[in-house]
Amino acid sequence: MKGLILLSGGLDSSTLACKLKKEGKQIEGLFIDYGQKMAKTEKIAAEYISSWANFKLTVINIPLDNSLKVGCLFEKGTKQWTSNFVSFMPQRNLFLLTIAAMFAQKLGINDIYIGAIKIPINPFPDTTPEFFEAAQTALRKSFPELNIYYPFINLEKKSVALIAKEIGMPLNATFSCEMAVDHHCMQCPSCLDRYWALKEIKDDF
Predict the structure, then answer these.
(1) Cβ atoms 163, 19 nearer than 8 A
(2) How many other C-beta atoms lie within 10 A of the C-beta of residue 140?
(3) Domain coordinates in residue numbering, the chain
């Protein structure tokens, strides 16, 4: 049965997509541009990964109104990262899953995959198993056949990077940053988690 994967172009979702494809799963990728300032670079990464792994990628543009934008995903420029920065976009994963469910239902796809991973100190309430179970329950009210899968939820970044390495996925083609538009700022948590995970697996090999 075909699956739809939310593909951001980052390490986690890219690795999940490539792993599913390698395992023989028929998949289609979905990239959502909701107005995040790094969307262009994320989309390039998602397109590269989908081309490399040979699966279809659909891009949906649904920019948020300015009244809904909050945090550094939308703020102009790259600033010095501080602990006061807000990278959490309220209801982001529920929003993405809802759009994915709408698209999947139209295509007759029942399985949605999201590349959420285990974060030791998780500041995001919408990246937990409890959240995904609740989202699935809510969306099933209008899409009873829907299944939401998050197979990396018990894996930390290094473990995901190891899977990518074993698959042979082009790690440098992925992009994960909460601050910069077209490069890794090397300040935000996403950049630093990615950097240390890739450094550790290089040391292991």
Answers:
(1) yes
(2) 14
(3) 3-204
Please name the residue that has the structure tokens 């939308």. 74
pTM: 0.93
Q: Which of 9, 22, 25 is nearest to 112 (CA)?
A: 25
Helix (H) or strand (E) holding 29: strand 27-33
Residue 58 DSSP label: E
Residue 171 CA to chain centroid, in angstroms?
15
What does the alpha-carbon distance between residue 108 and residue 128 come to, in Å, rounded to a whole number? 27
Count of other CB atoms within 10 angstroms of residue 173: 17
- The mean per-residue pLDDT over the stretch 25-47 comes to 97
Question: Could you report the per-residue pLDDT of 102-112, keeping only the tens digit for each?
Answer: 999 999 999 99
Task: Give the pLDDT score at 79.
Answer: 63
Q: Domain 3-204, what architecture?
A: 3-Layer(aba) Sandwich (3.40)
End-to-end CA distance of the chain: 35
Q: Which residues of 28-38 are buried (b: 16+ CB within 10 A; e: fewer)?
A: bbbbbebebbb
Which has the closest alpha carbon to 49: 168, 162, 150, 158? 168
